[in-house]
Design a protein that fits this description.
about 425 residues; Rossmann fold; Tyrosyl-Transfer RNA Synthetase; Structural Genomics Hypothetical 15.5 Kd Protein In mrcA-pckA Intergenic Region, Chain A
C-alpha cells in the first residue's frame, strides 16, 4: 500500500466515524501502531458482513501495523445490546468457548496469526477472573449512567426492556480496550458503526485511568443497493464456513450482486489496486458482468483459497454458460455444484417446480417461482419449464443420477435422488 494508509482505507469505504481524524491519519501514515477488533462468539462461523472489519484489518496489517483479533468469549456471556431489539439467547460457557475457537480458526486464514504482527486473544482470560465488587469500584465509577442511557444502543432497547446484565456490556468492552492498551500499547479500536458508543467509552476509560491517548474508528453498516442487509440471501446468512455455505454458493453470491454495488464491493471485499477497481467499475453491459466475475473470484480466493475460487469459476462456466464457454461437464464439475438430495419417493410422486425451486433457495418464494415460470425463467436440464402444472420426476434425472435446476442465467442447483 503506497501513499496515505488512512486515505486508502477511507477511499475503499471503511471509515464511518473517527474520533480524531488528524490523529488517526498521523498514526496510520507515520507510525507502527497496534489496533484491535473484537468478535463475540455467538455462532460457529462469521458471515460475509464480518468481512468488512476483517478486510480492514488485512489492509492495516499489510501496511505494517500490528493486528489483535479479540474473540469475546467473556463478553458473549453478557450479550451486546447494540443493534438488537431483543436480548440475545444465553449460551453456556462450553458452547461459547467452542464457537470462539472456530471463529479464531476462520480469522487465522485472513490474518495469519504469528504472535508478532498478528495476535489472537480471548477476553474471557481477563474478564472471567474479575472480582465483581472490585471491578465496580475500580472501573464502574468512571461511567455515567446518564451518558450510557443517551447512547443509541441502550436508548433503542429501553422501549422493549434492557436487562441489567446487558447494561454491563459497555463497561466490559471498555475494559477490554484498557487491558489491551496496558499489555500491548493498543491505541486504536475499530468496529461496526453500532459500536461507536462502546468504543468511545474505552477511549474515555484509558484517558481517565491511565492518562493515555487512544482512538476510535468505525465501519459503515453495509446494506446492498436493494436495501438488504449485507451477507443475507433467501437461504439465510452467507457464512464464511465452507461446510455451511459452499464456495460455489459464495462465488455466486458476489456474481449476483446488484450492478450498483460492484464498485463498492470491489473496494471493500478485494485487495485489487484502486486504479484497477476504477477501471472495472467504469465498464458497462457485458463488461460489468466481467467485473462481477472478477469480484466473485477475488472475494472467494480470499475466503476459501485460490483452488476453490478456480473450481467455483469453472463450475459457473460449465453450468451458466458464461460467455458461451465450452468447458466439458464431468463428474468432478458436477460435484462442484450445490446439491440437495431429495427422497426418491417424492420424485416418484412428482414435485411441483415452484415448491422445489423455493426449497433449495433458487427463488425466494413459490409466488416468485410461479411468476418466473410464466415468464420462461426456470429451467430443468436446460429445458424451459413452460407450465406450473409440469412436475419434476424421476424421468428428469440424467445418467449421473441428478437433474440441474436453473433460475434465470445466474442461479443453479443440482438435485439427486436419495433412498
Amino acid at each position: 500500500m503506497s501513499g496515505s494508509v488512512y486515505d486508502e482505507i477511507k477511499e475503499r469505504g471503511f471509515v464511518a466515524q473517527v474520533s480524531d481524524e488528524a490523529a488517526v491519519r498521523r498514526m496510520l501514515d507515520t507510525e507502527r501502531i497496534t489496533f484491535y477488533v473484537g468478535y463475540d462468539s455467538t455462532a460457529t462461523s462469521l458471515h460475509a458482513g464480518s468481512l468488512v472489519p476483517i478486510m480492514a484489518m488485512v489492509h492495516l496489517r499489510r501496511a505494517g501495523h500490528r493486528a489483535i483479533a479479540v474473540v469475546g468469549s467473556g463478553t458473549t456471556m453478557v450479550g451486546d445490546p447494540s443493534g438488537k431489539t431483543e436480548m440475545r439467547q444465553m449460551l453456556d460457557e462450553a458452547t461459547i468457548r467452542a464457537q470462539g475457537q472456530a471463529i479464531l480458526i476462520q480469522l487465522s486464514r485472513y490474518l495469519h496469526f504469528d504472535g508478532t504482527s498478528a495476535i489472537a486473544v480471548d477476553n474471557a482470560d481477563w474478564l472471567l477472573p474479575l472480582h465483581y465488587v472490585a471491578f465496580l469500584r475500580d472501573i464502574g465509577r468512571h461511567f455515567s449512567v446518564n451518558r450510557m442511557l443517551a447512547a443509541e444502543a441502550y436508548r433503542l432497547r429501553l422501549e422493549k426492556g434492557l436487562s441489567f446484565i446487558e447494561f454491563n456490556y459497555q463497561l466490559l468492552q471498555a475494559y477490554d480496550y484498557l487491558t489491551l492498551f496496558r499489555k500491548y500499547h493498543c491505541t486504536l479500536q475499530m468496529g461496526g458503526d453500532d459500536q461507536w458508543g462502546n468504543i468511545l467509552a474505552g477511549v474515555d476509560l484509558i484517558r481517565r485511568v491511565e492518562g493515555g491517548e487512544s482512538q476510535a474508528l468505525t465501519f459503515p453498516l453495509l446494506t446492498t443497493a436493494t436495501g438488504a442487509k449485507m451477507g443475507k440471501t433467501a437461504q439465510g446468512a452467507v457464512w464464511l464456513d465452507a461446510a455451511q455455505f459452499s464456495p460455489y454458493d459464495f462465488y455466486q453470491y458476489w456474481v449476483n450482486c446488484d450492478d450498483r454495488d460492484v464498485g463498492r464491493f470491489l473496494r471493500i471485499f478485494t485487495l485489487l489496486p484502486l486504479d484497477e477497481i476504477r477501471r472495472l467499475e467504469a465498464l458497462k453491459d457485458r463488461g460489468l458482468n466481467e467485473a462481477k466475475r472478477i469480484l466473485a473470484f477475488e472475494a472467494t480466493k480470499i475466503t476459501h483459497g485460490e483452488l476453490e475460487a478456480e473450481k467455483a469459476r469453472t463450475a459457473a462456466n460449465v453450468f451458466l454458460k458464461v460467455d458461451n464457454a465450452k468447458v466439458p461437464m464431468t463428474s468432478e464439475t458436477l460435484d462442484l455444484l450445490p446439491t440437495t438430495a431429495v427422497p426418491r419417493s417424492r420424485l416418484e410422486a412428482g414435485i411441483a417446480p415452484a415448491g422445489l425451486f423455493t426449497e433449495v433457495g433458487l427463488t425466494p418464494s413459490r409466488k416468485e417461482a410461479k411468476r418466473m415460470i410464466e415468464q420462461g425463467g426456470l429451467y430443468v436440464n436446460d429445458e424451459r419449464i413452460d407450465s406450473i402444472e409440469r412436475l419434476l420426476t424421476l424421468r428428469d434425472l440424467g445418467p449421473d443420477g441428478g437433474m440441474i435446476l436453473k433460475a434465470g442465467k445466474k442461479k443453479v442447483h443440482r438435485i439427486v435422488a436419495a433412498g
